Amino acid sequence: MKSFRTIAVGVLCLAVLCGAAILWRAHNQKAIEQKKLTDEASAYRARAEKGDAGAQYALAYMYYQGRGVPQDYHEAVRWARMAAEQGNAKAQFVLGSAYQGGRGVPQDYLEASRWYGKAADQGYAKAQTEIGSLYYYGLGIVQDYAKAARWYRKAADHGEAVAEYDLGSAYYHGTGVSQDYIEAARWYRKAADQGDAGAQYALAYMYYHGQAVGQDYAQAVHWFHKAADRGDAEAQYQVGYMYYEGKGVPQEKAEAVRWFRKAAKQGKPESPACAKGVA
User: Fold this and answer.
1) Is residue 278 part of a domain?
2) pTM for this entry
3) Which of 48, 74, 76, 202 is the most exposed place for a label (fewest CB within 10 A)?
4) Percent of the chain scored above 70 by pLDDT?
């Protein structure tokens, strides 16, 4: 008995030591990574202070994210502005984002559109997407669906998933372009293939209703599932509905309830009785 207790104590001590070693290694690794980021920020600062636009943008981004330096939107804006005024498209985009979100500067959609426009004119796809959205919603500039669609297309042609989804929606609803379900499905698929949950849901919806694509419940549940796995509550609900009705998948009430509950945690009603079809 004494021998067993001795072994047990030894095993416990070994486990404690191993645990401590793992924690120490993790802490040490974190310290190494933090020092690397701090050194990186220092190197960027030295170059930025000499007027290097690329370094100014990089330093602005580090302040924006709080990587290697304390998060400071005001400092992020200061360095981003220096780089933006030298024509750095990424910095112009960051400055536009700062004005749009009111981070480090007062919220100002007009200024956001100005800086997004500068970056967009240089072919920066993320800025093209954002200037398109400002035109779409009429934020800081006169609402213009046609201009929104044109900017979405420019960004989509660069493979920007958000723009592909937005362009698909423009074609689906006929906003700024002629309504065209075939084009909508084409752009939704491009964005869906890149993992955009909104596009995955939209494509699933089109398969469910047979809009420009043949009605195919298996494809519908496939794309609903992808969006659901990315945390989309509507898609989680629809996956539950498909299992509840046995559409595209074998009817499984338990699996339906599991998905309904996932959606319910994000505010969707849990009861299958509320599922009147794809909404």
Assistant:
1) yes
2) 0.81
3) 74
4) 85
253 CB-near residues (< 8 Å, 6+ apart): 243, 244
Tell whether 101 is covered by a domain: no
For 96-140, the pLDDT digits (tens) are 999 999 999 999 999 999 999 999 999 999 999 999 999 999 999
Q: Is residue 247 part of a domain?
A: yes
For 209, other C-beta atoms within 10 Å of its C-beta total 14
Q: What is the DSSP letter of 1?
A: -
Instruction: Give the residue numbers spanning the domain of 206.
Output: 195-279
Specify if 276 maps to a domain.
yes
In percent, the amount of the chain with pLDDT more than 90 equals 78
For 142-211, give the DSSP string: ---HHHHHHHHHHHHTTT-HHHHHHHHHHHHHTSSS---HHHHHHHHHHHHHTT-HHHHHHHHHHHHHTS
Give which of 161, 111, 151, 101 is closest to 131, Cα–Cα: 151
Determine the Cα–Cα distance for residues 279 and 276; give it in Å rounded to an integer: 8
Instruction: List the structure tokens of 45.
Output: 């600062």
Alpha carbons 194 and 156: distance in angstroms, whole number: 12
Quick one: DSSP state of residue 273? G
Cα distances (Å, whole numbers) of residue 243 to 138, 199, 237, 254: 41, 21, 10, 9
Task: Count structural domains, the chain.
Answer: 1
Signed CA dihedral, 64, 65, 67, 73: sign only:
positive
Q: Note whether 55 and 22 are within 8 A (CB).
A: no
Helix (H) and strand (E) counts in the chain: 13, 0
> Residue 42 contacts by C-beta under 8 Å, 6 or more apart in sequence?
none
Identity of residue 40:
E
d(CA 200, CA 222): 9
- Which CATH number does the domain housing residue 244 bear? 1.25.40.10
